[in-house]
From TrEMBL:
GO MF annotation terms: phosphatase activity
Family of the protein in this entry: Belongs to the histidine acid phosphatase family.
Protein name, UniProt field: 2-phosphoxylose phosphatase 1
Organism annotation: Chlorocebus sabaeus
Functional note: Responsible for the 2-O-dephosphorylation of xylose in the glycosaminoglycan-protein linkage region of proteoglycans thereby regulating the amount of mature glycosaminoglycan (GAG) chains. Sulfated glycosaminoglycans (GAGs), including heparan sulfate and chondroitin sulfate, are synthesized on the so-called common GAG-protein linkage region (GlcUAbeta1-3Galbeta1-3Galbeta1-4Xylbeta1-O-Ser) of core proteins, which is formed by the stepwise addition of monosaccharide residues by the respective specific glycosyltransferases.
Amino acid sequence: MLFRNRFLLLLALAALLAFVSLSLQFFHLIPVSTAKNGVSSKSRKRIMPDPVTEPPVTDPVYEALLYCNIPSVAERSMEGHAPHHFKLVSVHVFIRHGDRYPLYVIPKTKRPEIDCTLVANRKPYHPKLEAFVSHMSKGSGASFEIPLNSLPLYPNHPLCEMGELTQTGVVQHLQNGQLLRDIYLKKHKLLPNDWSADQLYLETTGKSRTLQSGLALLYGFLPDFDWKKIYFRHQPSALFCSGSCYCPVRNQYLEKEQRRQYLLRLKNSQLEKTYGEMAKIVDVPTKQLRAANPIDSMLCHLCHNVSFPCTRNGCVDMEHFKVIKTHQIEDERERREKKLYLGYSLLGAHPILNQTIGRMQRATEGRKEELFALYSAHDVTLSPVLSALGLSEARFPRFAARLIFELWQDREKPSEHSVRILYNGVDVTFHTSFCQDHHKRSAKPMCPLENLVRFVKRDMFVALGGSSTNYYDACHREGF
């Protein structure tokens, strides 16, 4: 009897300890503070590293895998979140193309063997992949702006061509499109079932990878869309500056930024040693190897789990990769501190941001055109926009990155319109320079449209210094 009582006591004690442990974990994970409007303070997800889930120090391999953005489970996102009395008016989506084959090769090595045909039973897979291929094969007569009409609508080479979108890249944007469909169409009814061509605005650069990425997202968003309603405009500039691309001061900022990058590289003796080792392995001058931008090819090997190349002199290995990637991360950190890139970004991003607020303002007037805008672009498109918005903590655009501007109307005050900014599903509205303090004065989980308009029309030029009050004067001011 004594033994039985002791056993029951121990059992009860163990159960109590387990309950306390689980309770502590539960209350650690679930926030207890709540904002005035009922939205949890944790709902504004951070874009800084999370100490619970990320390495305590910068890990170049971890950062590289985030950049790869390998499709796995469906991600959580904050798009479309707003109080019930807010109505979604329009959505403006900026994407980087999906995973691609390298633009450069490591000299005297075999190209990584990546298959750029789309195969349903090969990972990564998406349920709509076969239907996407079938639908693209019916669009050969689609009417796109020249020269887009001469580009293939989906990747289809057994050995990828340079810069070609891969199956991974297609799946990444099918996932993006389906996620946005679930939120903006099924939940918020942004477009009617009988949507018309003028309710979409589609624009892409003249690269097959951007056109195909845009089509993959669009197919996930509007499955089996009517080809007659789809028209992609061609954008010759990666900055999407249309007729406002000539900007001498912007180019001067870029030259100074490139000079900063060069000087930082000269100071990194470990980086130069690594380039020297790799150059000996592939038997070329160090300068030639550096010019071949080996990190681009090495990232492809990492993202597709392909071994780094070897020659009779040895193998390029993970330690080489870590040194080069670590330098990239250090370069991004110094870039934020020196702020030369910020000057380039403010002038580089102004035209596309100005187009966006113009589209938003027309929507506030009740216009029903261009309710969903999609810009299919590059890292060199998104990066200046992120920097110009003041999102200095945001990571460099990964493959299939998405930056979204949402325009909302307050049903209780129909004349009031607000915006939300989201980067890869994270609400970064209150990280932007034009709205970082607004939430301290308002319980609304978004920012007044006027703040964004004032930023684009005036504050972007104020941030550049000088007396310029418009884009043309800022681009041509003397004495910079």
